[in-house]
Model the fold of this input.
Amino acid sequence: MVAPTPTARVTPNAPRLKDGFSSLITFAADSDVALWEIGVKPPGQDGGDEIDTTTMHNVTYRSRSPRALITLTNSTARFAYNPKFYTELLTLLNVETTITQTFPNSDTLAYYGFLKNVEPEELVEGEMPIASATIVPTNADPSTGSEEAPVFADNATP
Done:
């Protein structure tokens, strides 16, 4: 068996985002819901905890292996809102739909998911009312139940 050898870091071939403005979330089930994005945390990707593969044949080090499946993690956001969202949320909460996250450079990430919760923060004189929300990616087509990966579209202009 051959020991691992170092690999040189190469400069990425795409420009980085320089500003988080403007990031938007669209629910296919209600694309004009009365929520105005203030801050958006897109979903991440998580490979899960490692699998311990250590046996009595190991001599010095414990060995580990990655899991096979990947989790698209929850997205969260803070919104300004209109109180009419209380009735609009009845069409969104726990309803599986397509969620589209638009990044500042116009790239998009579309995935199946549902709005888990929206919770208004304390109303304070002199401050804009804000609500926090959690969106759960399901990675499953709600009409067929089949596994569907998120779809990234590179819409950035050079």
Notes: The mean pLDDT is 95. The longest helix spans residues 85-88. The two ends are 45 Å apart (CA to CA). The domain at 24-153 is CATH 2.40.30 (Elongation Factor Tu (Ef-tu); domain 3).
